[in-house]
UniProtKB/TrEMBL annotation:
The keyword Amino-acid biosynthesis does not apply. Keywords: Leucine-rich repeat, Repeat. Signal peptide: none annotated. Gene3D superfamilies: Ribonuclease Inhibitor. It comes from the Bacteria. It comes from Sorangium cellulosum. The keyword Repeat applies. Residues 1-27 are annotated as: Disordered. InterPro entries: LRR_dom_sf, SDS22/Internalin_LRR. SUPFAM superfamilies: L domain-like. This is Internalin.
Length: 304
């Protein structure tokens, strides 16, 4: 076998390579070879990334578990529940209701202890006893209590005032007094002044049959019906009150003077038969027709 034939069988080439060109590549083969190398180099990171991704994918199927908190030397304070908001006031509570009367248990102790110095001073003056203890039995000898300047006297002591059974004149200070119940049994009272107080209920006066002069001006009184039986009244002042109806006064035949300035009274006809009336003050009231009063002989109508 010739060398030429052996070469062709071994290398599968038609002709043996030219010895002058055996180690060289053709110009077209060089760029293709270079491009293949470049692509292979570029694909190496992608292949590596694909391998890493393939290894990580199985772990992504499981939900991540929270890391255990690191131990801390400081324990966080427990969260405090927010303080409960105060309950909303009901509509009834929004309206100011009158204060409840406190229950008082009175002891008949001796000597008497006075809660207000001005009251004690007036009592001592009446009893002519500037010093020393005052026995409860002595209070019935007090005839007049002039308390007009007793500042801070906001109530009538329910344990002391009922003991003034001989009282004929009581003159209360302007202020916060609003309850006349402690004097409802003082049936000898003839003159009473409660003007410029918070008194609204006159029912404790219904039994004071000897009452001759009464001043309830500048109070929130609106109802005069408790006075209907006080037939000994000769002077009555109701200035600047809430009174609108004078019919409870129709039977007060001894009434001589009536002051009703700056009230809401508009009708004076209930007074037409009170022949003892001498002076009526209607300044600032709503009276438009005073003719029922003009029929009373000798009356003076003060209109302003």
């Amino acid at each position: 076998m010739s060398l030429d034939t052996a070469f062709r069988r071994r290398h599968g080439t038609a002709t043996p390579p030219d010895p002058g060109t055996a180690g060289r590549r053709s110009p077209a083969e060089v760029p293709l070879r270079a491009a293949s190398c470049i692509i292979a180099a570029m694909n190496r990171p992608l292949i590596f990334a694909s391998l890493v991704l393939a290894l990580c994918l199985p772990g992504c199927d499981e939900p991540s578990k929270p890391a255990a908190p690191a131990a801390s030397a400081e324990v966080a304070p427990a969260a405090q529940a927010p303080s409960a908001a105060p309950p909303a006031a009901s509509p009834a509570a929004a309206v100011s209701a009158p204060p409840k009367r406190r229950e008082v248990v009175c002891t008949k102790s001796d000597p008497v202890t006075f809660a207000h110095p001005a009251l004690e001073a007036r009592v001592r003056q009446q009893l002519q006893k500037p010093e020393g203890p005052i026995a409860r039995a002595q209070l019935k000898n007090v005839k007049t209590l002039l308390l007009s300047d007793a500042q801070g006297l906001d109530e009538l002591d329910p344990c002391i005032f009922p003991e003034f059974t001989g009282l004929k004149g009581l003159y209360l200070p302007p202020g916060k007094i609003d309850d006349l119940n402690p004097i409802k049994g003082l049936t000898r009272i003839e003159s009473l002044r409660v003007s410029a107080t918070l008194v609204k209920d006159l029912s404790p006066l219904a039994g004071l049959a000897k009452l001759d002069r009464l001043d309830i001006g500048r109070t929130p009184v609106s109802d005069l019906s408790p006075l209907a039986g006080l037939t000994n009244l000769t002077e009555l002042q109701i200035d600047e009150t809430e009174v609108t109806d004078l019919s409870p006064l129709a039977g007060l035949k001894k009434l001589e003077m009536l002051q009703m300035k700056r009230t809401r009274v508009s009708d004076v006809s209930p007074l037409r038969d009170l022949k003892s009336l001498k002076n009526v003050y209607i300044e600032g009231s709503r009276v438009d027709d005073a003719s029922p009063l003009r029929a009373i002989p000798g009356i003076k109508i003060h209109e302003g």
